[in-house]
Amino acid sequence: MTKEIKHIPVLSKEVLEYLAPKRDGVYIDATLGGGGHTESIVSCLGKRGRIIAIDRDRFAIETAKRRLGKYGDKIVYVQANFSDLDEILEKVKIKKVDGVLFDLGVSSYQLKSPERGFSFNKRYNAFLDMRMDTSQELRAFDVVNEYPEKRLREILYKLGEEPFARRIARQIVSARKAKPIRTTRQLLEIISRSIPAYYRFRRKSHWATNVFRAIRMEVNQELPSIKRALPLAIRALEKKGRLVVISFHSLEDRIVKKTFREMSFPQDNKPVVKILTKKPIRPSPEEVSMNPRSESAKLRAVEKL
Ligand SMILES: C[S@@+](CC[C@H](N)C(=O)[O-])C[C@H]1O[C@@H](n2cnc3c(N)ncnc32)[C@H](O)[C@@H]1O
Question: I want to staple 128 with a disulfide (CB 3.0 to 4.6 A). Which of 13, 141, 169, 195 is the partner?
Answer without folding.
Answer: 141
